[in-house]
Amino acid sequence: MSARDLIVLGTAGAVPTKTRNQNGYLLRWDGHGLLFDPGEGTQRQMTHAGVSATDLTWICVTHFHGDHCLGVPGVVQRIARDGVRHEVTAVFPASGAVYWRRLRYAASFHDTGVIRELPVSGESMVLDTGDAPFTLTARRLDHFVESYGYRLEEPDGVTMLPAELAARGVRGPLVRRLQEDGAVTGPDGRTVTLEECSVRRPGQKVAFVMDTRLCPAVHELAADADMLIIESTFLDEDLRLAEERSHLTAGQAGAVAAAAGVRHLVLTHFSERYGPEDEERFRGQAAESFQGEITLVHDLDRIPVPRRRTVPLNR
């Protein structure tokens, strides 16, 4: 299986700092590359991270504030310059289509036509992912401008248990038939069921939540996610400011992750008002509610998606 990991290209809020570039998050998934919110400087950050335009198959923009989209022109033109041959799907709020067009054609270049535009609208929309090994859902968040969060899910599967198969004499072509039909007749004449010889493998889920106040969509996106990448722009003592500016605090992000049953919480999108000395306070405030793994990300971090879970098939 190809890599499943998050490559962090930028972690600042509205204003970049000496140590944090503006937003940019590349989720690599079985040969697909989903680039979320390419802020200013993303093309150069990709070079630092050792990834290229040919790694991209999706560009997903949550909304059209500059720190989430001003890197689009460079990325689009790099796709053309590097001769990317495969289709790259661009997802963005339909209400901001005029901004998308301005960004896509911000300067003169030879457009190779590989970018497929897929505007999103409404409260929730399941996107056309073709033959990709996942589904992608967009849900509308609560921000000053129309903004969407994204949720990637793979289908559930099963993991066969070799010891159970061997104990029942099921081997070779019988294993495939068992997987396809759910039951087979074993060599001794007894019926062997799929439930006896396998465990359910829940499909992995990753949620991406940027600029928003708390709203039902945040919880829906995060539900049972293996990894939640979420803004934590402010510390809890600045809750009033966060609400005024339609953002979340670290404590709110932790509470969302705890309520949703998230496995790995990734905090990002930090206001420039805070310095490196404040980083552990973000982690600590999130940890007041969430007891799972927390990563407070820095530019160029690489974070693996947690390993799959398995549960009994009949659950």
UniProtKB/TrEMBL annotation:
Pfam families tied to this protein: Anti-Pycsar_Apyc1, Lactamase_B_2
The free-text cofactor remark is: Binds 2 Zn(2+) ions.
Q: Which amino acid positions bind Zn(2+) 1, per UniProt?
A: 63, 65, 143, 211
Q: Which residues form the Metallo-beta-lactamase domain?
A: 21-218
Q: What class of enzyme is it?
A: hydrolase
Q: How does it assemble?
A: Homodimer.
Please report the name of this protein according to its UniProt entry: Ribonuclease Z
Origin species, per record, is: Actinomadura vinacea
